[in-house]
Write a structure and sequence with these properties.
There is one protein chain. Helix 2 packs across helix 8. The chain is globular, with a radius of gyration of 22 Å. A 7-stranded mixed beta sheet has the order 10-11-12-13-9-3-14, with helices on both faces. Helix content is 20%, strand content 32%. 45% of the residues are buried. The protein is built from 9 helices and 20 strands.
């Protein structure tokens, strides 16, 4: 563990008795008490997560929107200030480098949050794309002096600047039905605009904590309503303590990565390295809707246009009876024929039966199809189902 990075909240986690694990090169709390207790607390009340291992990039400048239109699969230019958008960083092959969330902070300012384990890959992709001739050429008409190269990485003056600010910021998530009440009751959170009562899903509010700027985004990775709060590292411990104090009467508990994983699985949310990878194109993972195919150009566009889905495996949900759950790497069968492989699986704490996500051949992907999961040599009947497995009641 000595070589692992730690967040600004590591001492708080140790004081709470957390067990730690290596996640993307970071020493992160996997649980504080029990996986099940933390999972159920998020579904019934609220959980508090340290997600400061996530990578943050600021993209600024007059051509920042145009750069991100080229660098990402989604359409960034139409975003309104105050909104967030789920998107993908694609390789030239059309495979997925990472999935990210983009926040439009101002007309010429964006925040991109990537996965911890893909920080270097995303940084490298942005740096390389920032200097590609096709990007510059596509925006020549918009540059007053007609220059041909105006997208640069940090440290070089230009019309778009990419800065890795991961090491400066902490990210704390409050997830669950009581999340709004907890954030509203937290001492020292002031000047929130728009008010949380008016904040839409996938949008953010500007506020302050300890007299310094605070970003509150209505986003999350649990299938519940909730918020992700971004502050400078020096304010993280104070914010964590204030949230715990405000949330204690409402059932808030600190929650680790184990609960976060079962929560996101029930919600059918993909995890990079499991449902997403360089070998998977968006349509296979059910993310074709994320790709703005009408954009004139973006990295991966040509490969996706050439792609023929054909017999490529597609992502499905699987449900089974009993208590024996399929795990990542377990085979999926139609009779004696292996038709796929599980990417994530667990005994669902909320639903009480095994659930899994798997890539299977298109012919075995129709909801209602009966298949089998090979659980350590035993064939367990399973049924293909549409994702997600769990969906909260919207309020």
């Amino acid at each position: 563990m000595s070589d692992l990075r730690t967040t600004a909240l590591h001492d708080r986690h140790e004081a709470l008795g957390a067990s730690f694990t290596d996640f993307g090169g970071w020493s992160m709390p996997v649980r504080y008490t029990s996986d099940l207790a933390e999972h159920h607390a998020v579904r019934a009340a609220a959980g508090l997560f340290d997600i400061s291992h996530m990578a943050e990039f600021l993209v600024t400048g007059s051509e920042s929107a145009g750069f991100l239109d080229y660098a990402l699969a989604g359409a960034v230019s139409p975003m309104k200030i105050g909104k967030a958008k789920y998107s993908l960083v694609l390789a030239d092959s059309g495979g997925i480098v990472d999935d990210v969330i983009v926040y439009r902070i101002a007309e010429d300012r964006f925040l991109v949050i990537a996965n911890a384990g893909n920080r270097d890959a995303v940084a490298a992709a942005f740096a390389e794309r920032a200097q590609r001739a096709p990007v510059a050429a596509s925006f020549l008409a918009e540059r007053p002096d007609g220059g041909s190269s105006f997208l640069f990485i940090e440290g070089v003056s230009g019309l778009a600047r990419i800065e890795d600010v991961t090491d400066q910021l902490s990210l704390i998530a409050v997830q669950g039905p009581s999340a709004r009440a907890i954030v509203q009751a937290t001492a020292d959170i002031t000047d929130v605009a728009p008010a949380l009562d008016d904040l839409a899903y996938y949008a953010w509010s500007a506020g302050s904590f300890g007299g310094e700027p605070l970003l509150i985004a209505r986003t999350g990775y649990t299938g519940e309503d909730g918020y992700e709060l971004l502050v400078p590292n020096r304010l993280a411990a104070g914010l964590w303590d204030a949230l715990l104090t405000a949330g204690a009467p409402l059932g808030l508990v600190p929650a680790g990565l184990a609960a976060r994983d079962t929560l996101r699985l029930e919600a059918g949310m993909p995890l990079y390295g499991h449902e997403l990878s360089l070998d998977i194109v968006p349509a296979q993972a059910g993310l074709g809707r994320v790709v703005a195919a009408s954009k004139p150009d973006f990295v991966g566009k040509q490969a996706l246009e050439r792609a023929d889905g054909g017999d490529a495996p597609v992502l499905v949900g699987l449900v089974a009876d009993g208590k024996r759950a399929g795990r990542a790497g377990y085979g999926v069968y139609d009779g004696d024929e292996r038709v796929g492989e599980i990417t994530s699986g667990a005994l669902s704490p909320t639903l009480g039966h095994p659930v899994a996500m798997a890539f299977v051949s298109p012919g075995a992907s129709e909801p209602g199809t009966s298949l089998f999961i090979d659980v350590r040599g035993t064939r367990i009947p399973a049924t293909v189902t549409a994702l997600p497995f769990y969906k909260r009641n919207a309020k």
